[in-house]
């Protein structure tokens, strides 16, 4: 029986992070779409329809929390799990509730933890 691959949208302004996450998740059985900025997230979500979104907190001059809030307040994506990825330690204790992210992973992240969390949150869709 052929299972449909879960789709992951990864938004981060660091090309190395995008490449690592993309390779790891692709080899773990996910379809991955990456974006290096948040300016066209709405279009990407509409065309790709991700099962889960990985979102960096600081994306160039944009704040990932604002993108998260917008996604969580949209009828199209309010149920889509969002995992915030941030190098800002302690970020989740101060800000997670403000944007309704489903989970938080700090950078540098553990590859196995990332895969485990993506599996966990994408399986509920």
Give the key terms:
single chain, 125 residues, alpha/beta, Rossmann fold, five-stranded parallel beta sheet, 22% strand
Give an account of the 3D structure:
The mean pLDDT is 89. The strands form two sheets. Strands 2-1-3-6-7 form a five-stranded parallel β-sheet, with helices on both faces. Strands 4-5 form a two-stranded antiparallel ribbon. It has helices at residues 15-27, 41-48, 64-72, 91-99, 111-122; strands at 7-11, 31-35, 52-56, 58-59, 62-63, 82-86, 103-106. The chain has five helices and seven strands; from the N terminus they run E-H-E-H-E-E-E-H-E-H-E-H. Helix 3 runs parallel beside helix 4 (91-99). The protein has a single domain (7-122), classed as 3-Layer(aba) Sandwich (Rossmann fold), CATH 3.40.50. It has 125 residues and is of the alpha/beta class.
């Amino acid at each position: 029986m052929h299972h449909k691959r879960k789709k992951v949208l990864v938004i981060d302004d660091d090309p190395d992070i995008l490449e690592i996450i993309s390779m790891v998740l692709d080899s773990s059985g996910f379809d991955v779409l990456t974006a290096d900025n948040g300016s066209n997230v709405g279009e990407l979500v509409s065309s790709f329809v991700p099962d889960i979104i990985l979102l960096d907190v600081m994306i160039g001059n944009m704040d990932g929390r604002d993108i998260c809030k917008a996604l969580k307040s949209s009828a199209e994506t309010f149920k889509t799990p969002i995992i915030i990825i941030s190098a800002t330690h302690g970020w989740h204790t101060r800000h997670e509730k403000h944007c309704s992210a489903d989970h938080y992973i700090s950078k540098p992240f553990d590859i196995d933890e990332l895969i485990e969390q993506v599996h966990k949150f994408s399986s509920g869709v």
